[in-house]
From TrEMBL:
The UniProt record lists the keyword Transcription: yes
InterPro entries recorded: Homeodomain-like_sf, HTH-type_TetR-like_transc_reg, HTH_TetR, MftR_C
Keywords, in A-Z order: DNA-binding, Transcription, Transcription regulation
Descriptive protein name: TetR family transcriptional regulator
Organism: Phytohabitans rumicis
Gene3D superfamilies linked to this entry: Homeodomain-like, Tetracycline Repressor, domain 2
DNA-binding span(s): 34-53
Molecular function GO terms recorded: DNA-binding transcription factor activity; transcription cis-regulatory region binding
Stretches assigned to the HTH tetR-type domain: 11-71
Keyword Transcription annotated: yes
A Pfam family the protein falls into: TetR_N
Length: 197
């Protein structure tokens, strides 16, 4: 019980730091905003900031969606094929996003698209997401953790998701873009036939 309360407090502090950081980045610009300013706005010490976020970049790149999606994937029925299970997990996570969370996600994406150092780190995060998804797939399917096919499938899922939403780069992501991600994963599930509408 105590551990659960502690984890909730940590999550609340982490979210508050990120919320204040995104607000300051929007008001002052990413480069002009310091860790000291973020910590002061969130009413935490600088050492507390660094306990939650190793760098200023990390406060933007924190993504709560990967853990939620992996949890939702674990909860899919075991007899559902892998890509269909991933589609179900993504749908479940994005149907639960409220307007405030989505606005924060759009702020994050705008920053990532306009700040070169964040763009570079975002690419590293895609690799990490592929690794996390590959491990989740191997656990789900009872395969060795380094299974080649699971890693390739995870990479294909992330690539299909990026391909489906490339139109939004430099613009706004909409929740309806998740329909395009689902459509892209449907193509993946069907063997990626070309020439569709």
């Amino acid at each position: 019980m105590q551990a659960g309360l502690r984890e909730r407090k940590k999550a609340k502090t982490r979210a508050a730091i990120q919320r204040h950081a995104l607000r300051l980045f929007q008001e002052q610009g990413y480069a002009a905003t310091t860790v000291d300013q973020i910590a002061a706005a969130a009413e935490v010490s600088q050492s507390t900031f660094f306990r939650y976020f190793p760098t200023k970049e990390d406060v933007v790149l924190l993504d709560d969606y990967d853990p939620r999606m992996l949890q939702a994937l674990q909860e899919q029925p075991p007899d559902v094929p892998p890509v269909r299970a991933i589609r179900g997990a993504i749908r479940r996570v994005f149907e639960a996003i409220d307007a405030a969370d989505w606005e924060r996600e759009q702020q994050r994406q705008r920053l990532i698209q306009t700040v070169p150092e964040l763009q570079a780190r975002a690419m590293q995060q895609y690799v990490k997401t592929i690794e996390l998804l590959a491990v989740a797939l191997t656990e789900r399917e009872g395969l060795p953790i380094d299974d080649f096919n699971a890693r390739v499938l995870a990479g294909a899922v992330i690539g299909a998701s990026i391909g489906a939403t490339m139109h939004a780069v430099g613009g706004e992501y909409e929740l309806s873009d998740m329909d395009l991600v689902d459509q892209a994963l449907g193509l993946l599930e069907d063997g990626l036939p070309l020439g569709g509408s």
